[in-house]
């Protein structure tokens, strides 16, 4: 059980880790966590119909997509949320994250660790229908977060304008 507790501790870290890209533009209190984002990505696969899961004539495995969505940013519990604006090459980022996911999985049953690492590697390669869909859901979740934030900002500004007008 200690190994499982150690593994789950990394999950708790991403619950507290704010998305770094958002911190550049939004007040920290309004920034989602990495876990919020991973949940949003995985939620897509509960809503998608079988036809939504079709890629190149093949229906992707919904459960595999859901697990991959949960795993895809877990390495950030160790390396942090590295963005394209950070001074690190994509190769260096992948190496850091690969080492991190191996560390995260080192405390759990070897068969489970192998599956989690394989899910992460499959996502990184982006070649399978499941990985392609999770990458698309990852982008869509980010875009919907932008839209949600913009609507929230517009609502706040409109409310402020109304308050200023009535005062």
Please provide a written account of the structure.
A hairpin with a 2-residue loop joins strand 1 (54-55) and strand 2. It is built from eight helices and two strands; from the N terminus they run αααββααααα. The chain has a two-stranded antiparallel ribbon. Helix 3 (34-47) runs antiparallel to helix 4 and helix 7 (110-125) packs across helix 8. Helix content is 70%, strand content 2%. The chain has one domain: Orthogonal Bundle (Hypothetical protein af1432), CATH 1.10.3210. The termini are far apart. The mean pLDDT is 87. The chain is mainly α and 167 residues long. The longest helix has 38 residues, at 129-166. Pfam families: HD_3 (PF13023). Homodimer. It is an enzyme of class 3 (hydrolase).
Number of DSSP helical runs? 8
Low-confidence stretches: none
**What number is the mean pLDDT?**
87
Task: Classify the helix fraction into a percent range.
Answer: over 70%
CATH topology: Hypothetical protein af1432
Strand percentage: under 5%
| Strands ordered across the widest β-sheet | 1-2
Radius of gyration: 18 Å
Cofactor: Mn(2+); Co(2+)
Organism: Eimeria brunetti
GO cellular component, one term: cytoplasm
Pfam families: HD_3 (PF13023)
